[in-house]
């Protein structure tokens, strides 16, 4: 995502894009600009507007306000009433359910867009096989979609989307119908395929791990707005708001208040860290998973109770609540399994905290363990 690109330089761009259903706004002024060969993920919960934005780019919906341009050509402009239908936008789409025709062979499914464009049989055959080769399915051209696995069907849908060599590919949650293990395998495979083919793509998902794996840039959406648009690394290192941090599951969010030289969890006598700042300051803070080290309950450590724990590849991800602060839940990684109800002590690295809001202080924070 390169927001400094002009509409004429961008592979796809939108300007002040809005969509209303009656008096209800669904999108509230979206500005994006995607350069050629890059992938933008639209990430957010159901109802945030990400699929609506994709449909506006695709030409399946017309904007209430604003405009859409593809490869420098305006394809929709609410001010002038201009609107190009999907077949005039030179794009491909991959849907949640793949939308493969069961009565056609794999080759027949892939060649269908070419047939609709009136391309001759010999060229259709050549381009169809080339597209299938690019997704590793040339040997399956004569099979039916029902003979293939879910991952193979997805690749057929991608081959059909790229067979006409469009300038833009739109993915609408293409992995959501796969089981978890296959979905995790396909994310990496799809990312490699997009990069190898040099595709320009917009990818809609509600899964943050998909977005962070696949995309060059991610637009985190909420309530019809883009909360933050940044690279995956920047999103993780510098989330713009508590809502972004919470949605990305980067750690626990807590409200703090400053009293008597200490930062306390709001409304409590539980102190997080020492600070020589000005009294009366308040802030929200992200306590990242990586900032917390579990250990025995001891002076200078925060006392916590394990609520639940689940294994993941790099250890056990535990959710804990702080003693006296049942509403504050934090997450941490442990090399050993922590059982619900276990009492543990927490050390928190203050240098890894991410502050939001009006934090006011004048000297370096210190973890209470070292105070």
TrEMBL record:
<comment type="similarity">
    <text>Belongs to the ABC transporter superfamily.</text>
</comment>
<feature type="domain" description="ABC transporter">
    <location>
        <begin position="12"/>
        <end position="248"/>
    </location>
</feature>
<dbReference type="InterPro" id="IPR003439">
    <property type="entry name" value="ABC_transporter-like_ATP-bd"/>
</dbReference>
<keyword id="KW-0406">Ion transport</keyword>
<dbReference type="Pfam" id="PF00005">
    <property type="entry name" value="ABC_tran"/>
</dbReference>
<dbReference type="InterPro" id="IPR013611">
    <property type="entry name" value="Transp-assoc_OB_typ2"/>
</dbReference>
<dbReference type="Pfam" id="PF08402">
    <property type="entry name" value="TOBE_2"/>
</dbReference>
<dbReference type="GO" id="GO:0005524">
    <property type="term" value="F:ATP binding"/>
</dbReference>
<keyword id="KW-1003">Cell membrane</keyword>
<dbReference type="InterPro" id="IPR017871">
    <property type="entry name" value="ABC_transporter-like_CS"/>
</dbReference>
<dbReference type="InterPro" id="IPR050093">
    <property type="entry name" value="ABC_SmlMolc_Importer"/>
</dbReference>
<keyword id="KW-0410">Iron transport</keyword>
<keyword id="KW-0408">Iron</keyword>
<keyword id="KW-0813">Transport</keyword>
<dbReference type="InterPro" id="IPR003593">
    <property type="entry name" value="AAA+_ATPase"/>
</dbReference>
<dbReference type="InterPro" id="IPR015853">
    <property type="entry name" value="ABC_transpr_FbpC"/>
</dbReference>
<keyword id="KW-0472">Membrane</keyword>
<keyword id="KW-0067">ATP-binding</keyword>
<dbReference type="InterPro" id="IPR027417">
    <property type="entry name" value="P-loop_NTPase"/>
</dbReference>
<protein>
    <submittedName>
        <fullName>ABC transporter ATP-binding protein</fullName>
    </submittedName>
</protein>
<keyword id="KW-0547">Nucleotide-binding</keyword>
């Amino acid at each position: 995502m390169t927001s400094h690109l002009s509409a004429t330089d961008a592979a796809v761009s939108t300007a002040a894009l809005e969509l209303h259903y009656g008096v209800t706004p669904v999108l509230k002024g979206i500005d994006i600009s995607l350069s050629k060969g890059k992938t933008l993920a639209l990430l957010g919960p159901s109802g945030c507007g990400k699929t609506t934005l994709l449909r506006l780019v695709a030409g399946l919906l017309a904007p209430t306000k604003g405009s859409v341009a593809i490869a420098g050509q305006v394809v929709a402009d609410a001010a002038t009433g201009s609107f190009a239908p999907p077949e005039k936008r030179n794009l491909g789409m991959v849907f949640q359910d793949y939308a493969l025709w069961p009565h056609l062979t794999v080759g027949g499914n892939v060649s269908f867009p070419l047939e609709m464009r009136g391309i001759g049989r010999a060229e259709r055959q050549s381009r169809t096989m080339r597209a299938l080769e690019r997704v590793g399915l040339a040997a399956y051209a004569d099979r039916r979609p029902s003979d293939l696995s879910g991952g193979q069907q997805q690749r057929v849908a991608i081959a059909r989307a790229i067979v006409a060599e469009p300038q833009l590919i739109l993915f609408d949650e293409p992995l959501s119908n796969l089981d978890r293990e296959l979905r995790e395998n396909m994310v990496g495979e799809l990312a490699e395929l997009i990069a190898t083919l040099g595709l320009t793509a917009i990818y809609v998902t509600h899964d943050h791990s998909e977005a962070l794996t696949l995309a060059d840039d991610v637009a985190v959406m909420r309530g019809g707005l883009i909360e933050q648009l940044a690279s995956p690394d920047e999103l993780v290192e510098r989330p713009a708001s508590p809502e972004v941090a919470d949605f990305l599951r980067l750690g626990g969010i807590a409200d703090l208040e400053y009293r008597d030289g200490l930062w306390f969890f709001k409304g409590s006598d539980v102190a997080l860290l020492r600070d020589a700042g000005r009294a009366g300051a308040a802030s929200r803070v992200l306590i990242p998973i990586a900032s917390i080290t579990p250990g025995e309950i001891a002076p200078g450590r925060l006392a916590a109770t394990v609520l639940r724990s689940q294994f993941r590849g790099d250890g056990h991800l535990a959710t804990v609540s702080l003693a006296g602060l049942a509403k504050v839940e934090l997450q941490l990684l442990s090399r050993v399994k922590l059982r619900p109800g276990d009492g543990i002590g927490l050390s928190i690295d203050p240098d890894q905290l991410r502050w939001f809001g009006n934090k006011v202080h004048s000297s370096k924070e210190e973890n209470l363990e070292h105070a």
